[in-house]
Amino acid sequence: MRKILLLFLVVFIGTINPAGAQSAAIKHRLVIQLNTGDTLIWNGMMKNLKNLKAGWGDSVQVEVVVHGPGIQFMMKEKTTQAIGIATFKKMGIEFVVCENTMRERNVSKEQLLPEAGFVKMGVGEIILKQEAGWSYMKM
Q1: Tens digits of per-residue pLDDT, 87-105?
Q2: Which residue among 7, 68, 98, 124 is least crowded, i.e. fewest CB within 10 A of its CB?
Q3: Comparing C-alpha atoms, which of 27, 86, 94 is closest to residue 56?
């Protein structure tokens, strides 16, 4: 009886996932650096995001870090990608804007799309992601 109880306890403890079930499903993590105002680059990145989600679905986690001239990508009055950003945000892709860039370029949060998240330093965010094992892509 003790052996059966011990076996049951070992099996039960082995099935507990302290990080949660979602983390087990994520196999790929990608941070994308976007620091250009070139709309052709934006188009290419959006195609890459579409292909990643089509190929890997929820097993890929993506964060796009926008800084420098790339801030226009997230600006209501300047972006050509508002619909795509909203669509990808609903699919779990994060779009974060560098607060240093916002300050340097006098851009307020109200000027940005509602899908925007914020980080203090764009480059710092990229470094942290890479240190945590995320893959990196520069656009």
Answers
A1: 999 999 999 999 999 999 9
A2: 7
A3: 27
